[in-house]
Amino acid sequence: MNFQRVLRGGFAALIFLSLQTTGLANDFLPSGDDDLLRFVPVQSGEPVELLILNRQGNWRQYSDFLGLGTRWVYAESGNNRIWVFNPLSGFGELLVNLDAAVGQSFSTPLGPCNSQATIADRQTIVETPAGRFDNVIRVDFSGSCQQQGLEAVWFAPGIGPIQWSRRSEFGSRFFVLTEAFVDGLVLPVATELAISTTLPVDRIVIDDQPAILANVTLQNPGQEDIDLMFTSSKTFDILLFDANGELRRQYSLDRIYTPAVQFITVPAGGSQTFGDWLELIDDQGLPLDSGTYTLRIEIPGYRTPEQGPFNNQVIAIEAPLHLDRRISLP
Hints:
With 330 residues, this protein is an all-beta fold. It is built from one helix and 24 strands.
């Protein structure tokens, strides 16, 4: 699945039933090509994105590592040491060992403003717009600069850095995690709505079944109604991508939608279902080839502002779809 496509489209949010973190190659750094962490400054300023631009073996070039700009960082499976390439020495140098005991310090390759890193705490609880994190490791930085450089970084297991602060002439400046996609997990997780789906799981023989049913049911186990707001009469879409990530079929392409705001309520203890039948042809009306596709169903409604921070979310589910054709013998 090409989840990079999901993140770039307004950071659509997949909804899972529970928040479960999984181990990375290094438990405290994102390692997947599609992984992305997005931070915003608490005071003001532009968001900062952490993603992998290039890789060579266990070396990964991050777009903006802890607000320090593009950096090559080394992390390997089986330990939680983080190394950073120092262009002055031409070597990778240890930044910090996150398995170390509280109080242990390390000389860093980040320059005079960040010359030392110290494990300050191993059981911190941190709440950010992306969620609440337990067993967070806080690393404090020190150096010869009073109003520049890193002050502290908070690392969450299974995610990576979730917050950092920098020194400035106006005091500490914080950057906090607002959204993330790491190893298949999307944050923030909207736990208010549970999901069940009707999607094909067996191989489909197109000759016998020229269309498939794809729908998503949103269940509200809470005691309050949940309103979804839509900016048009379009309440869902179904998309089919081939093995190369190319969009081959879009349900909404040949349909007309009215541009008017509407609300659909998922009642307390109730549910709403979105979806329809999708013809197994491409957008030019031609038959689809045999092969494995990615079926994606989206619900573009989002929570109303008074219902919390989960605004502008696209509820989306993806699943593989295997298509085949009956072989005709001569």
